[in-house]
Amino acid sequence: MSRTSKTAPSPLDDRAREVVDRLHAQNRHQFARSIIPLVREMVKAKFGTGNWDSTQTDSGKEMLADKMVALDPEKAALCHLLCRSLRARTVVEIGTSFGVSTIYLAAAVRDVAGEDATTGPPGLVIGTEHEPGKVEIAERNLADAGVDDHAEILAGDLLETLPPRLAALADQDRPVDFVLMDIWIPMALPALELLIP
Ligand SMILES: C[S@@+](CC[C@H](N)C(=O)[O-])C[C@H]1O[C@@H](n2cnc3c(N)ncnc32)[C@H](O)[C@@H]1O
């Protein structure tokens, strides 16, 4: 194990860690450069719609279209360890972006399924992302990290892409073991309602 930050040891192998270390640094850099535009969009949203949520306004969506907004290393590592502890093989990720958290989750389900390949399905993370540019980047990052065999990304609005995929899992008697909910706030409840059944 080596350290991705001063406080959290990384649970990933060398290949995946190299990718996420680069992405975590990119995320920090992008966030630092985006604070002023983010605040500007929130103020515009407040004047235009009455609330601070800039994720649903046209200019806010445009500004966020290439932003990573990724989990930081400690939170992503916690998700990985929770999946390992739960022996999760089937994971749904609500909000994928550039695939940072997806890499941690896919490594976890790969390791769980690999430790006991005789029972249960192979490990799979089902990600969701509606920005086409982010889907492309996430797929590349998953391949670079060596976990693309254990992840698929549903491209498009998750309200449309997720129901048929969840129905297919149900047909296979394959329960969802873990959900990472990491989405713009107005989408969280609708996404949860899809998952509850
Ligand atoms: C907070 S980011 C996810 C970050 C990611 N979990 C990580 O740690 O790297 C939320 C993502 O959800 C995507 N998103 C927002 N609304 C969506 C929708 N209706 N369907 C699919 N993706 C959506 C956004 O484009 C954004 O990339």
Question: Which short descriptors sum up this protein?
Answer:
197 residues, alpha/beta, Rossmann fold, four-stranded parallel β-sheet, 7 helices, 56% helix, globular, binds S-adenosylmethionine
Describe the structure in your own words.
This protein is an alpha/beta fold. It folds into two domains: 14-64, no CATH class; 73-195, Vaccinia Virus protein VP39 (Rossmann fold, 3-Layer(aba) Sandwich), CATH 3.40.50. The chain has seven helices and four strands. Helix 1 (14-49) runs antiparallel to helix 2 and helix 3 (73-86) runs parallel beside helix 4 (100-115). The model has no long low-confidence stretch (mean pLDDT 94). Bound molecules: S-adenosylmethionine.
Mean pLDDT: 94
Structural class: alpha/beta
Q: What radius of gyration results from the CA coordinates?
A: 17 Å
Overall number of structural domains: 2
What is the straight-line distance between the termini?
38 Å
Q: In total, how many beta strands?
A: 4
What share of residues are in beta strands? 5-15%
Task: Specify the CATH architecture of the largest domain.
Answer: 3-Layer(aba) Sandwich
Task: List the SSEs and their pairings.
Blueprint (H helix, E strand, L loop, with lengths): L13 H36 L8 H7 L8 H14 L3 E5 L5 H16 L8 E6 L2 H13 L6 E5 L2 H14 L6 E4 L3 H11 L2
Parallel strand pairs: 1-2, 1-4, 2-3
The protein binds S-adenosylmethionine.
